[in-house]
C-alpha cells in the first residue's frame, strides 16, 4: 500500500469503521442492560504511580466479569473461559468517576472504551508514610436499574525512603517465555494457561527481588512493567507476578482494536517508548535500570529513551532470545556506550545478576539464591 493509500484509509475509511463499531457497541450495551445480561458494574483500577506532588493512574468501567483467581489444577477449558471473559468485555462509555486522595478530588469521564485517567496534583505535597497509597474511586452515574454503590480502591506507588534506583522491565520473553516471536505458540500459552502454569525464566523472581532490596535489604526500589500486551490481561499478569514472587509494580499495557486513531493496534515501539518516558517524567528524582529482550525492539526503544533523557538510565540488560539479532543489538550497545550507558546482552538471569553484584547494586548472597533457583529448575 502506498503512502497516499494509507493516508486515505486512515482519514476516510477509519472514521467510518469506527463509527460503525461505536454504534454496534452502544446497541449491544443497551440490549445487555434491557435484558439483564449487564446487571452489575465494576471499576477496574490499574496500579498507578506518582511523586510527592502528583499521582497518575488508569482504570476502566466494565460489566462485572466475575473471573476470580486461578488455581494450579484449573483445566485448560476453564483457563480458556476466563480468558474469553477478559477479552469479551462490556465497557461502559461516557460515565463519570470521582477519584479522592488525601482530601483532593477529581472527576473524570470514561472514553468510548470505558477507560479513564486520573492525574491529581498538589502544590503543598502529599503526606507519604508508606510507598503504596490508596486512591478511592466512585462511579457517579447510574448505568443499570437498582444499581448499588460502585466503588473501588486503586493503589498508587510513591517512592519513599532510601530508594537507590528504579527498574523498568518488559514482560514477554524478558520475564516469561511467551513465544512472542511465534504467534501460534504465544496464543496457545496465553489462552490455555494461567498464572500458576505459566512459569518465568529461572531465577527471575530472585533477581528482581534482589534489585528491589538493593544494598540496604529493604524492598523499596520501585518496579515498573511496560508491555505491549492488552489491558485485558492486566489481572492475569498481576496474578502471575504475585504467584511467582516477582515484585509488584505499575503495569503499563495498551488497548488493542479499532479506535479513532488506529485500525488494530498502535506501534509497539511508540507505545513502550511513550510509557517509559511517562515514568521518567513523573519519577524525576530516580535513575533507572532497564530490562528487556532482543526478540522485539527493546534495545532500540531504550536507546531512544537514553537519547531523549540523558542521565536517567544507569544500566540496560537485554535477554538474548533471538540469535539472528545479536550483531544488531551489539551495535546498539556500542551506541549506548558512546552516550555513557552500559548495555549487556545476557543469555540468562544469572549473567545479569553477576554483573549487578559487580556493580554493587545487589548482595552476593542474593546471587547465590538466584543461582540455586536456576539450578533447581535446570
UniProtKB/TrEMBL annotation:
A molecular-function term among this protein's GO annotations: phosphatidate phosphatase activity
InterPro entries referenced in this protein's UniProt entry, alphabetically: APP1_cat, Mg2+_PAP
Q: Name one Pfam family in it.
A: APP1_cat
Its transmembrane ranges are none
| Ranges of residues in domain Phosphatidate phosphatase APP1 catalytic | 165-320
Coiled coil, from the record: none
* Name the record gives this protein: Phosphatidate phosphatase APP1
Source organism of this protein record: Mongoliibacter ruber
